[in-house]
């Protein structure tokens, strides 16, 4: 009888262990699935965020592009307003206007505002506001 | 030691310890022992049956004892061949009753009880009486093994039952003790126990590999955070992403508008007096060369934005559209 008790005890013990491990397995499985999903999301978001940062958060590049605007011929009048830099070109030919437009379009500067006003048949006044 | 003695000894060793147990015997068993039970432990009946063999006779064993035993459902049966053709020896035994008697009368513990046999099956072939002790002997009369008192006129050396047991192998008629009080055999116990043990083992291995995967995923997540320089919380990540996506949307719209004005040839219809572009609105003042071209120019702007707000003051078109 004592042998039977030992057998029952051991059987119950291992059954409990097996049940516990089964429960643990289920939770581990869902945890692994969750982590895998998280990794996939991070990968996706990471690539997207890197691209966005490269485009709009690269301060060194932005500085370089701002100084290139400042050095543009004809030289603009430059002033700052808060986080913005305002470059005004009082007189600009059609050709130069196209050059500057291309430069702006190729750049990663955050353009806040562009104003063009006709001066005469050949020249225009240009005002560009960009984030510093 | 000669070969004969060696073979005998090894055979005895293989047989293991065995004991003949009867009511008048006082014994103490301390190690696992096979037991041959005396006729007091079972019912016996000799019957003629018109069947071919023992196996077929076995089917009728229950009915043979039906009128004799009340709790027949607790009994098991063994059928032996008799010397007479068409006649069989039927044995009925109750495992529960046998174990009760072994425990209570003989004070034998369950764990020292080995295989059980009945005297009838084990001594079915004896020709000479076997002495159990000074007072008792086993005889086979008319094929039935019984215990009788030792007769006084013994002129020859008696053969003792213990010696007979040592020299002879046990028959195949071992009692079936499975199911005693729901007890299981060792094999059944091991088989049953192996289920949760194997399951635990497999689950443990499985869980370990899952833990490993989890750790690998954790370290991979950390390395991705470092590579992409991601913030610690998903809230921060969402906020940064939203801000940059908003800038990205605004800038692509603004650049597309700048590019559109740069490429579009308006000089044929007139000239742009002023142009203002920001992330919210585009406004243009356009002076027409000819008033008749106004619809064409309006169509160009409407093509750019269907909801463009267009006002005309003589040759001046004032156009604005929301972004």
Question: What's a concise summary of this model?
Answer:
The complex is a heterodimer of chains A (132) and B (323). By secondary structure, chain A is α+β, with helices and mostly antiparallel strands. Chain A contains 3 helices and 4 strands, in the order ααββαββ.
Describe the structure using short key phrases:
heterodimer; A: alpha+beta; four-stranded antiparallel beta sheet; 4 strands; B: 323 residues; alpha+beta; Gyrase A, domain 2; 9 helices; 14 strands; rod-shaped
Largest sheet, spatial ordering of strands of chain B: 9-8-7-10
Major sheet strand order of chain A:
1-2-4-3
- What is the 3D form of chain B? rod-shaped
Order of helices and strands of chain B: HEEEHHEEHEHEEEEHHHEEHEE
Oligomer: heterodimer
Radius of gyration of chain A: 33 Å
**Helix content class of chain A:** 55-70%
Descriptive overview:
The complex is a heterodimer of chains A (132) and B (323). Chain A is an alpha+beta fold and 132 residues long. Chain A folds into two domains: 1-57; 59-131. Chain A contains three helices and four strands. A four-stranded antiparallel beta sheet of chain A has the order 1-2-4-3. In chain A, a hairpin with a 4-residue loop joins strand 3 and strand 4 (123-131). The longest helix of chain A is centred in the N-terminal third of the chain and has 55 residues, at 2-56. Chain A is rod-shaped, with a radius of gyration of 33 Å. The model of chain A has no long low-confidence stretch (mean pLDDT 91). Chain B is α+β, with helices and mostly antiparallel strands. Chain B folds into two domains: 3-183, no CATH class; 261-322, Gyrase A, domain 2. Helix content of chain B is 40%, strand content 25%. Chain B contains nine helices and 14 strands. Chain B has helices spanning 3-15, 54-58, 61-65, 95-104, 119-122, 161-167, 186-228, 234-263, 294-304, and strands spanning 18-21, 33-37, 43-48, 75-81, 87-94, 113-118, 130-131, 136-141, 144-149, 159-160, 270-278, 281-288, 309-313, 316-322. In chain B, strands 9-8-7-10 form a four-stranded mixed beta sheet. Chain B has a four-stranded antiparallel beta sheet with strand order 11-12-14-13, covered by helices on one side. In chain B, strands 1-2-6 form a three-stranded parallel beta sheet. In chain B, a hairpin with a 2-residue loop joins strand 11 (270-278) and strand 12. The longest helix of chain B has 43 residues, at 186-228. The termini of chain B are far apart. The model of chain B has no long low-confidence stretch (mean pLDDT 87). Chains A and B meet through helix 1, helix 3 and strand 3 of A and helix 7, helix 8 and strand 11 of B.
């Amino acid at each position: 009888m004592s042998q039977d008790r030992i057998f029952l005890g051991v059987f119950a013990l291992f059954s409990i262990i097996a049940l516990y491990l089964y429960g643990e397995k289920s939770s581990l499985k869902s945890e692994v699935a969750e982590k895998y999903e998280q990794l996939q999301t991070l990968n996706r978001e990471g690539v997207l965020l890197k691209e966005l940062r490269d485009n709009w958060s690269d301060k060194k590049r932005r500085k370089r592009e701002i100084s290139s605007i400042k050095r543009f011929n004809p030289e603009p009048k430059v002033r700052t307003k808060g986080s913005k830099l305002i470059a005004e070109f009082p007189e600009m030919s059609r050709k130069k206007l196209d050059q500057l437009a291309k430069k702006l379009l190729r750049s990663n500067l955050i353009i806040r505002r562009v104003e063009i006003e006709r001066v005469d048949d050949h020249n225009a006044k240009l005002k560009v506001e960009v984030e510093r | 030691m000669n070969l004969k003695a060696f073979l005998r000894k090894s055979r005895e060793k293989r047989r293991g310890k065995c004991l003949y147990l009867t009511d008048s015997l006082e014994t103490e068993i301390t190690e696992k022992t096979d037991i041959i039970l005396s006729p007091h432990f079972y019912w016996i009946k000799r019957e003629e049956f018109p069947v071919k063999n023992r196996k077929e006779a076995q089917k009728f064993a229950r009915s043979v004892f039906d009128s004799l035993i009340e709790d027949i459902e607790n009994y098991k049966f063994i059928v032996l061949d008799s010397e007479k053709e068409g006649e069989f020896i039927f044995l009925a035994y109750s495992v529960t009753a046998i174990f009760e008697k072994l425990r209570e009368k003989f004070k034998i513990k369950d764990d020292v009880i080995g295989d059980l046999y009945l005297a009838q099956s084990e001594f079915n072939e004896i020709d000479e009486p076997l002495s159990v002790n000074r007072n008792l002997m086993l005889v086979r009369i008319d094929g039935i093994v019984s215990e009788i008192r030792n007769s006084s006129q013994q002129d020859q050396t008696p053969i003792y039952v213990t010696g007979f047991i040592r020299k002879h192998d046990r028959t195949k008629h071992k009692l079936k003790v499975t199911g005693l009080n729901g007890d299981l055999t060792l094999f059944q116990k091991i088989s049953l126990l192996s289920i949760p043990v194997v399951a635990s083992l497999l689950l443990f291995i499985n869980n370990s590999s899952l833990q490993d995967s989890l750790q690998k995923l954790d370290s991979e997540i950390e390395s991705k955070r470092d590579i992409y320089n991601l913030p610690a919380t998903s809230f921060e990540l969402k906020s940064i992403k939203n801000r940059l996506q908003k800038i990205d949307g605004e800038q692509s719209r603004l650049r597309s508008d700048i590019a559109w004005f740069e490429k579009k040839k308006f000089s044929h219809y007139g000239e742009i007096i002023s142009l203002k572009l920001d992330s919210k609105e585009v406004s243009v003042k356009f002076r027409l060369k000819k008033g008749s071209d106004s619809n064409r120019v309006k169509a160009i702007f409407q093509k750019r934005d269907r909801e463009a707000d267009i006002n005309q003051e003589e040759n001046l078109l004032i156009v604005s559209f929301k972004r």
